[in-house]
Amino acid sequence: MFVANADLLAHKAFNNKLSIISKMAQVIVLLRVMPEDVNVNIQELKKEILSKIKANVQEVPIAFGLVALHVATIVEDKEGEVERIEKTLKEIKGVGEIEVLEVARTL
């Protein structure tokens, strides 16, 4: 009886470790979103981005009144996730260019 219980506990412990290991890692993605032109309302653009994805958005002055948005978000570390975020952002009216500035693994 004791051996059977020990085997059962070892099996459960192994399965728990396996499920922890199999969880997908996450990455932080930092993107620069440029508006189409200086006439785009940056506050409205910011609001629209936040309605589409969960992110931290900061305004970064570029030059001559042009302001870019730095968008930081966390996604799973799997193929296609960064492209999915880019596609979502490109669909927003007023978005010009999008540049991936950094991708880093979370701890």
Describe the secondary structure blueprint for this structure.
Elements: H1 2-22, E1 26-35, H2 42-52, E2 56-63, E3 66-76, H3 81-90, E4 95-105
Antiparallel strand pairs: 1-3, 1-4, 2-3
Report on the architecture of this protein.
- This protein is of the alpha+beta class.
- The protein has a single domain, classed as Ribosomal protein S6/Translation elongation factor EF1B (Alpha-Beta Plaits, 2-Layer Sandwich), CATH 3.30.70.60.
- Helices cover 39% and strands 37% of the residues.
- It has 3 helices and 4 strands.
- The protein has helices spanning 2-22, 42-52, 81-90, and strands at residues 26-35, 56-63, 66-76, 95-105.
- It has a 4-stranded antiparallel sheet, with helices on one face.
- A hairpin with a 2-residue loop joins β2 and β3.
- The chain is elongated and about 45 Å long.
- The two termini are 41 Å apart.
- The model is unreliable at 1-5 (pLDDT under 50).
Global shape: elongated
CATH homologous superfamily grouping: Ribosomal protein S6/Translation elongation factor EF1B
- Radius of gyration, in Å, reads 21 Å
N- and C-termini, Cα separation = 41 Å
The DSSP helix count reads 3
Strand count, sense and barrel status of the largest sheet are: 4 strands, antiparallel
Structural class: alpha+beta
Strand-residue proportion: 35-45%
Q: Give the % helix.
A: 25-40%
Low-pLDDT regions = 1-5
Please report the first level of CATH classification, the CATH class.
Alpha Beta
Number of individual domains: 1
| CATH architecture annotation name | 2-Layer Sandwich
Write the CATH fold name.
Answer: Alpha-Beta Plaits
- Helix and strand sequence: HEHEEHE
Main-sheet strand order equals 2-3-1-4
Overall number of strands: 4
Average of pLDDT: 85
